[in-house]
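Appendix B, example 12.
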Amino acid sequence: MKRREAFCADVSLENAEPLAATASRVDHWILVEYRGLWGYDALAASALPDAVRSHLAERAASLGHTKLLFVRRPERRHHESTLVFWGSSPERGARLYSAQLERWDDLLDLDLTSPGETVAHPLLLVCTHGKHDRCCARLGRPLYEALAEQAEKDWVWQCSHIGGDRFAGNLVCLPEGLYFGRVGPGDAWRVLDEYLAGRIDLERYRGRSCYPCAVQAGELAVRRATGLRGVDDVELVSRRPLRFGAGGRVVEVEVTPVPAPPTHLTCDAQTLRQPRRFAARILRESAA
């Protein structure tokens, strides 16, 4: 495949493509520390034993809406043990667990659904998966370095493909499953500071992984209309009609698909595709 010259993130920014409602739909997370090379398909290209690769793929498939990622930190390159994280990110009650492994076959003893050692701090995942898309490495690595300087050392990880290459630098905050895009090194502290205060930086917010994209559009419309930025300030009440609890009120939102100009979704894409885009408007408010 002939490589395109244009960077997809630059084209997306030049075209003012909205970040809103572009987060991947994820309920469950499996994060495996892998220090080898990450191929385009990180799991398939890895040197993990066949049984371990099959186990990870089967667990992810059986759970549904699962994101299986490789993670790494350069300073752990020669560490003796390997870390694995897993958990879920519902709207309320998100949890992450971890385990340390001495050998890869130890993964076969983890069903990745039962509780392990609770992770008592956030995980900040920055996509740096250059083999998947050039923009992820070009824009992700400086973001990783900026966050690593400002956050606790155990919090920040490079990760494989999380979706939305053209919105790099991409950041996911776990356990809540908050997606942020076009985060540059200069934005890192503001996004992080807001997150640690329990708030969402709406300027860089792509959406929350527990919601489908249309619901993400509605949530952001409610937040913009009410000014509520706290992570728990807005709660989904019903999907049909789409209603959110917000600040002691129930807000009903109409979300409709709207046409979007075709674009290259990745740097190496050879064909134009039409991304999903939604328009959201507040219909009415009522007492909770």
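The chain has a mean pLDDT of 96. The first helix runs from residue 8 to 14.
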